Amino acid sequence: MLRLRPVPYEDPVAQELVERVQQEYVVRYGGPDEAPVDPEDFRPPAGLFLVAEVDGVPAGCGAWRAVPTGGVEVKRVYVDPEHRRRGLARRIMAALEASAAAAGHRSVVLNSGREQPEALALYEALGYEPVPGYGIYACAPDAVFLGRRLEPVDGKGIPWAS
User: How far apart are CA 48 and CA 39, in angstroms?
Assistant: First the structure.
């Protein structure tokens, strides 16, 4: 059974999953993501960090943080290899988008890379389109910047919302 739960960025489970994300980047790109991350950015209402658990086992994560343009940036979307190809990343993205929209945001951006074809295929399937580069990877040749509009929601479709 899948359970999505919001946790602070500093939560030990969140940090373990972030470390797994970073190791994935080391394998695919030769080093970790060096974009600055402040744990405060992921505290509601300005942001959110979600842990996805399958049968009580941490299986993935994802987060968003508000950006100066008025939208949000999705960060740290990850699914453990043993849980891939089951739709978990799609469910994490849906929860991130719904919670950002419920918080009043109307757009989302993200940064990925050419060495993550599975992620790029997912984002394309979800309706993401190219947007201008931003941040420390704005001019990186293999960086991919995507975004899309969010539809307003009332929060009722968010798994942990009351």
Answer: 10
